[in-house]
Amino acid sequence: MMRASFLRVLAATAAIAALVAAAGCSSRPADQPPLGRVRGKITMNGQPLPGVDIVFAPDKGRPSVGTTDTSGRYDLSYINTTKGAKVGPHKVFIRPAEVSPDEVPGEGSKPAAPRPVIPAKYNKRTELTAEVKAGSNTFDFALESK
After folding, report:
1. What is the pTM of this model?
2. What does DSSP say about strands 135-138 and 35-44: parallel, antiparallel, or unpaired?
């Protein structure tokens, strides 16, 4: 009798654990499209290009954005902490990073570093495209200032 009761409790505990694990391992929110992880490096005239934003814009849907680090490397974010970009074709825009409020010079602060000049063919009139696939993607962009 006591053994049957123990087995029922054990079975119930296992069922609850399975439900919690399934809920915690949800693949993605219902309204989120399939994503591919997108990373890469941006250079200008052969040199790493730090402090620029890169935007992957699909034909329809939310764009993904990243900012290059001091080595010119980026890692796109789809939304909040969700990394990646929508699977499919994208136009790619590269532009100087937006200046955050804590970078605005005040009394006694150092002047902000000059923002890089990005030719229009990489931003406003971009000629850059990328096809994001499921899984891991690497897109390096070698820009020329002329």
Report:
1. 0.72
2. parallel
